[in-house]
Amino acid sequence: MDRAALADFLRRRREALQPQDVGLPLGARRRAHGLRREEVASLAVMSTDYYTRLEQQRAPRPSEHILASLARALRLTGDERDYLYRIAGHNAPTSLSNSPHVTPALLRVFDRLVDTPALILTDLGETLVQNSMAAALYGDTSHLTGFARSSVYRWFTDPAARSLYPEADRDRQSRIQVANLRAAHGIRGPQSRAGELVQALSRASEEFAELWARHEVSQRFEDHKTLVHPEVGAIEVDCQALFTEDQSQVLLVLTAVPRTEDAEKLRLLAVLGQDRFAPSEQ
Question: Among 170, 186, 63, 193, which residue's Cα sits nearest to residue 124?
Answer without folding.
Answer: 193
